[in-house]
């Protein structure tokens, strides 16, 4: 079950080599990714990801509307961690312009972002199992995820594309029911973790499929700028929440889980442990939720940002999400570049996939948690 | 000993017609039921409801689906190898009907009573591979070809533990012979006659699962692999190969593949019932009822397994077969032979 | 937070700009010429930095230049370097050396910049469009492409009184 | 020996998995049969927008200030309106929203100075053409004349009251101003 090292493979274009277009319409390409595989038998000689099928020109749109009008776009860049992107964008603009955020709004933001992170990881867990052929855990995960969506739906009015953040705060306040629901959910989720552990992590077939498969070494991660859980599974303790604390994360006590192996199993472990850490953060947030306003009294519509270049990064469910904003002093950004984590992760795939088998491709691409619209923007 | 259809009808053509009619009816009903049942089992496991709309708790859903499939256009993609492409569903389907006619479903009446029934069933099982490869090659589709390749390697490999784990039963039966008394009637007993295997279990009251638990387990796993059921469903691994060897099939041709898959499940479970669970043997209820009850319990187990586990990778599947199942079944066979000789 | 010493590039860089991490998120800010890009990338690679982002700006309106924006960062402690590289304003015509062979992460970023801005990277192994279809004939993020006034019947985003017919 | 322990361990994990799914099998389903059983929409549910009917006005209160038009990221709102003869309040005469473009972000509702926009609870609406334009004023057209009439009366009254007040104030002021003259 060992894979031959990539360097033992000769990349030949003889009669034995053939090409397989995996995607853009394929059950496990998570949207519209296309992998052009060079195969010999079931062994992958080379892989060329082809992207752009879900390109929606968010960066162009940003240049044609004011800062506040870009808010709804942000949660559509990555629809799975829409809250983190949405609030991350607001935080970037707040830092740029210098808007104060009330303490209550800050804590609410942390709570909803972490809920969103758990939601995203749960969906990843489900689809990863689906890629490996286990359909049932997928539906269990969706059952849990549904709870989060219901909780977030109550406070944001939307289930996926939240548009919850506003400059200087959030749109709606949370109430006691939200706190109660969140606490109940954490209790439930911790029970479910035990079940997932027994059903998935302990399963011998799952371990066989994941152990030693798709190793992203620290070297590859550094070369391609892979971030997020995929990087932490390779033993690098890099998390934007810790490296460049933002939005009050420095006041919360949480660990950054890391694993050494860098394979699919390590990525699985890192994500599951990250969900546990998110639970801790939410708990602390719910306990320490201060009273007070949740934003400025009047919606801040018109901004007067200083001229110049700005960079702001947040930790999305998939890694380092950076926003490079060029301001010309007007209410419309001169340029916004969205540096998305999946883009970097996917660009490392040719190096990782070389020498594996078709079935591994699915497992590896599934394990790095790609969201295609986020890559294409 | 049971009467065959030939004994009952006298005329071989009449017997053949009645046999095919009977088998087709049973297999069709089985497919209709199994698809519904599979959807229901998966729904129960996943805490959904499954089909609920057509008929009571969706019982008629598969009938509706079948009608839909019948009404669908049969698409023949450009570039397929037409003879192979058209023939493949039949080649997958025909051996199933033949194999089904060999199983002794009751004490008194069977379709056929052949002394080499066990061998024939394995042979018909081996036939299906040819159909699958024809489908994969004829489709001119890389996913289909990969699926077919996987299927051949898998089916050929898993036939070995399948047969090796059935052999101890043959030994056990043959050890009772050459003549054996069943209900006051002395017969020349044959280890490969399925009716005899059942009869001996019923007569001694000891099902072979008690004597051969390891063989039972290996046999069951091999049946899972032979019928391309999860966790060994790599020939049609949905998340990898789209639909494997039947990617390019539509309408009723696709339906025939489905039909064959569920019929194979039934035949596999029935064979396991005959070999290890005493066939029609059971108290109170009539023989056929017990026979089908046991078979469907095994089918339920197969579904339960499918909806619990992820899929193995291709090379792991082969390693598992050659590294675990075959050595184990050989050891089991040797131990059985040794014990029969000693005791 | 202490960490490994920060990389000093002052010897290699033309100009060091002012930056304040607390305000704009950059620890260091440099301007460089296109010919220095590869040497800079090699220096960052050798010190264990990764290419965080590479993009381009269409500054033909104010600076009369195209400008490449590189940011490098490292995993250990945040140390973000912004490197701005000014290029000729002609599209097509603006060109910079590729750093994809030094930092493979740049491969896709450079393709994206080429796709969106038309800036060519010499020595890039596979310089073709990445997000837009291969057969389009425009570079989407250039300022003179697809301005909102060009769009038929679209509301003006920033005009003070859009279609106020009350008067 | 490790060969057999591996197999045994693997089997045990598989049996554990089967046990878990068996336990789940006995539980009630968590899904709803959607068209028959409808899930409750949350209070905050963001859907298509509509105009609020204020009780004290008996109609909407859109003053055609164009704030929502300016902030709409989808550029899907079109408003006409302005001063109506005889009343102080500005009134909208057209409030067209192209719901095919609307992304239900809620910015218009946040920005509305009179709070006259709200979300409906329509969750299964669909457009069948590229343009799917509703005039949100349509349900209010019948009330408009009545409202304007009422408003005119109340405005007139208010104006009269104000004028009276002003007159009174002026009188009082005049009185206070006059007083010193009277006093000496």
Task: Explain what you see.
- The complex is a heterotetramer of chains A (377), B (343), C (167) and D (184).
- With 377 residues, chain A is an alpha+beta fold.
- Chain A has helices at 58-63, 71-77, 82-97, 103-131, 135-156, 176-201, 204-210, 218-224, 229-232, 240-243, 264-287, 341-347, 349-353, 358-367, 372-376, and strands at residues 17-22, 34-40, 43-50, 165-166, 169-170, 308-316, 319-327, 335-339.
- Chain A has one domain: Cytochrome-c3 Hydrogenase, chain B (Orthogonal Bundle).
- Chain A is 47% helix and 13% strand.
- In chain A, the strands form three sheets. Chain A has a three-stranded antiparallel β-sheet with strand order 1-2-3.
- In chain A, helix 3 (82-97) runs antiparallel to helix 4, helix 4 (103-131) runs antiparallel to helix 11 (264-287) and helix 5 (135-156) runs antiparallel to helix 6 (176-201).
- Chain B is mainly α.
- Chain B has one domain (74-342).
- Helices cover 68% and strands 3% of the residues of chain B.
- Chain C has 167 residues and is an alpha/beta fold.
- Chain C has one domain (15-143): 2-Layer Sandwich (Beta Polymerase, domain 2).
- In chain C, 41% of the residues are buried.
- Classes of the chains: A alpha+beta (377), B mainly alpha (343), C alpha/beta (167), D alpha+beta (184).
A few lines on this structure:
The complex is a heterotetramer of chains A (377), B (343), C (167) and D (184). By secondary structure, chain B is mostly helical.
Could you say how many structural domains of chain A there are in total?
1
CA-based shape of chain D = elongated
What global shape of chain A is seen?
Answer: globular
Q: pLDDT below 50 for ≥5 consecutive residues: which ranges of chain D?
A: none
CATH class of the domain at 49-160 in chain D: Alpha Beta
* Percentage of residues in strands of chain D: 5-15%
Q: Strand order, main sheet of chain D: write it out.
A: 2-3-5
Roughly how much helix do the residues of chain A carry, as a percent range? 40-55%
- Calculate the mean pLDDT score of chain A and round it: 85
In quaternary terms, these chains amount to heterotetramer
**What is the spatial order of strands in the main beta sheet of chain A?**
1-2-3
Tags for this entry?
A: 377 residues; alpha+beta; 3-stranded antiparallel beta sheet; 15 helices; 47% helix; globular; B: 343 residues; mainly alpha; two-stranded parallel ribbon; two-stranded antiparallel ribbon
Topology:
The complex is a heterotetramer of chains A (377), B (343), C (167) and D (184).
Chain A: E1 17-22, E2 34-40, E3 43-50, H1 58-63, H2 71-77, H3 82-97, H4 103-131, H5 135-156, E4 165-166, E5 169-170, H6 176-201, H7 204-210, H8 218-224, H9 229-232, H10 240-243, H11 264-287, E6 308-316, E7 319-327, E8 335-339, H12 341-347, H13 349-353, H14 358-367, H15 372-376
Antiparallel strand pairs in A: 1-2, 2-3, 4-5, 6-7, 7-8
Helix pairs in contact in A: 2-3, 3-4, 4-5, 4-11, 4-14, 5-6, 6-11
Chain B: E1 3-4, H1 5-9, H2 12-45, H3 61-71, H4 82-100, E2 109-110, H5 117-138, H6 142-176, E3 179-182, E4 185-188, H7 194-204, H8 208-211, H9 213-226, H10 238-241, H11 251-276, H12 287-306, H13 314-342
Chain C: E1 15-16, H1 21-24, E2 28-32, H2 37-46, E3 50-59, E4 65-73, E5 81-87, E6 95-97, H3 105-117, E7 120-122
Parallel strand pairs in C: 2-5, 6-7
Antiparallel strand pairs in C: 1-2, 3-4, 4-5
């Amino acid at each position: 079950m060992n894979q031959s090292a990539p360097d033992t493979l000769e990349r030949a274009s003889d009669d034995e080599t053939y090409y397989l277009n995996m995607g853009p319409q394929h059950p496990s390409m998570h949207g519209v990714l296309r992998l052009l595989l060079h195969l010999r038998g079931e062994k992958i000689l080379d892989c060329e990801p082809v992207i752009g099928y879900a390109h929606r020109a968010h960066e162009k749109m940003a240049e044609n509307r004011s800062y506040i009008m870009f808010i709804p776009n942000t949660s559509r860049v990555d629809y799975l961690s829409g809250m983190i992107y949405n609030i991350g964008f607001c935080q970037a603009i707040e830092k740029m312009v210098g808007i104060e955020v009330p303490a209550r709004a800050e804590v609410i933001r942390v709570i909803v972002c972490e809920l969103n992170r758990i939601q995203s990881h749960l969906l990843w867990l489900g689809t990863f199992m689906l890629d490996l052929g286990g359909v049932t855990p997928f539906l269990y995960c969706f059952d849990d995820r549904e709870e989060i969506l219901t909780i977030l739906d109550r406070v944001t009015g939307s289930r996926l594309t939240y548009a919850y953040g506003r400059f200087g705060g959030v749109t709606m306040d949370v109430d006691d029911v939200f706190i109660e629901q969140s606490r109940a959910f954490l209790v439930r989720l911790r029970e479910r973790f035990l079940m997932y552990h027994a059903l998935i992590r302990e399963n011998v077939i799952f371990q066989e499929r994941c152990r030693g498969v798709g190793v992203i070494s620290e070297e590859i991660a550094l070369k391609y700028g892979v971030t997020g859980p995929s990087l932490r599974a390779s033993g690098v303790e890099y998390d934007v929440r810790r490296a460049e604390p933002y939005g009050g994360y420095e006041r919360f006590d949480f660990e950054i889980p890391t694993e050494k192996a860098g394979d699919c199993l390590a990525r699985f472990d890192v994500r599951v442990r990250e969900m546990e850490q998110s639970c801790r953060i939410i708990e602390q947030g719910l306990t320490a939720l201060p009273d007070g306003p949740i934003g400025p009294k009047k919606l801040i519509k018109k901004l007067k940002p200083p001229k110049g270049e700005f960079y702001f990064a947040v930790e999305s469910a998939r890694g380092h999400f950076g926003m490079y904003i060029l301001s010309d002093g007007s209410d419309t950004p001169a340029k916004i570049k969205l540096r998305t984590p999946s883009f970097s992760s996917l660009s490392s795939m040719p190096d990782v996939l070389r020498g594996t088998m078709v079935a591994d491709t699915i497992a590896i691409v599934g394990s790095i948690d790609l969201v295609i619209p986020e890559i294409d923007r | 000993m049971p009467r065959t259809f030939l004994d009952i009808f006298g005329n071989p053509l009449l017997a053949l017609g009645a046999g095919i009619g009977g088998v087709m009816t049973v297999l069709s009903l089985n497919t209709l039921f199994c698809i519904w049942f599979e959807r229901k089992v998966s729904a129960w496991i996943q805490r959904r409801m499954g089909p609920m709309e057509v008929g009571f708790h969706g019982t008629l859903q598969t009938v509706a689906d079948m009608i839909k499939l019948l009404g669908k256009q049969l698409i023949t993609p450009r570039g397929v190898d037409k003879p192979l492409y058209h023939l493949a569903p039949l080649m997958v389907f025909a051996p199933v009907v033949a194999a089904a006619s060999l199983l002794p479903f009751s004490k008194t009446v069977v379709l056929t009573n052949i002394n080499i029934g066990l061998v024939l069933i394995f042979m018909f099982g081996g036939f299906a591979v040819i159909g699958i490869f024809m489908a994969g090659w004829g489709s001119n589709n890389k996913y289909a070809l990969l699926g077919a390749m996987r299927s051949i390697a898998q089916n050929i490999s898993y036939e070995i533990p399948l047969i090796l784990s059935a052999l101890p039963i043959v030994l056990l039966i043959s050890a009772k012979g050459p003549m054996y008394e069943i209900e006051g009637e002395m017969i020349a007993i044959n280890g490969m006659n399925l009716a005899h295997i059942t009869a001996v279990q019923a007569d001694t009251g000891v099902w072979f699962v008690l004597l051969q638990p390891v063989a039972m387990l290996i046999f069951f796993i091999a049946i899972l692999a032979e019928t391309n059921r999860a966790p060994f469903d790599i020939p049609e691994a949905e998340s990898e190969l789209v639909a494997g060897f039947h990617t390019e099939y539509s309408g009723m041709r696709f339906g025939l593949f489905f039909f064959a898959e569920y019929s194979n499940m039934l035949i596999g479970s029935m064979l396991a019932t005959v070999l290890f669970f005493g066939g029609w043997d059971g108290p109170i209820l009539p023989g056929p009822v017990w026979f089908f009850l046991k078979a469907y319990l095994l089918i339920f187990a197969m579904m339960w397994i499918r909806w619990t586990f992820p899929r193995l990778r291709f090379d792991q599947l082969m390693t598992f077969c050659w590294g675990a199942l075959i050595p184990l079944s050989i050891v089991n066979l040797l131990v059985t032979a040794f014990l029969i000789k000693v005791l | 937070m202490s960490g490994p010493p920060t990389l000093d590039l002052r010897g290699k860089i033309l100009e060091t700009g002012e930056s304040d991490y607390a305000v704009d998120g950059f620890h260091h800010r440099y301007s460089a010429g296109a010919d220095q890009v590869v040497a800079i990338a090699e220096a960052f690679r050798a010190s264990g930095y990764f290419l965080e982002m590479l993009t381009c700006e269409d500054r033909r309106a104010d600076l009369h230049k195209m400008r490449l924006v590189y940011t490098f960062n490292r995993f250990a402690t945040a140390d973000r370097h912004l490197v701005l590289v000014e290029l000729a304003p002609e599209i097509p015509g603006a060109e910079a050396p590729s750093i994809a062979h030094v930092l493979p992460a740049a491969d896709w970023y450079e393709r994206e910049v080429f796709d969106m801005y038309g800036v060519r990277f010499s020595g890039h192994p596979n310089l073709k469009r990445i997000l837009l279809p291969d057969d389009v004939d425009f570079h989407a993020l250039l300022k003179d492409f697809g301005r909102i006034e060009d769009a038929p019947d679209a509301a003006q985003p920033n005009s003070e009184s859009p279609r106020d017919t009350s008067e | 020996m490790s060969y057999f322990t591996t197999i045994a361990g693997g089997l045990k994990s598989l049996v554990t998995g089967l046990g878990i799914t068996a336990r789940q099998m006995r539980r009630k389903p968590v899904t709803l049969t959607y068209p028959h059983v409808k899930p409750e929409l949350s209070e905050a549910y963001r859907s298509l927008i509509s105009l609020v009917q204020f009780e004290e006005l008996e109609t909407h209160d859109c003053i055609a200030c164009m704030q929502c038009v300016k902030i709409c990221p989808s550029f899907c709102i079109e408003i006409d309106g302005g001063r109506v003869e005889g009343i102080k309040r500005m009134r909208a005469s057209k409030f067209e929203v192209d719901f095919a473009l609307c992304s239900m972000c809620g910015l218009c509702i946040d920005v509305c100075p009179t709070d006259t926009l709200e979300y409906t609870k329509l969750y299964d609406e669909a457009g069948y053409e590229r343009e799917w334009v509703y005039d949100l004023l349509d349900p209010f057209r019948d009330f408009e004349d009545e409202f304007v009439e009422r408003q005119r009366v109340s405005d007139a009254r208010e104006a009269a009251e104000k004028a009276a007040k002003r007159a009174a104030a002026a009188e009082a002021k005049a009185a206070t101003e006059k007083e010193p003259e009277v006093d000496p």
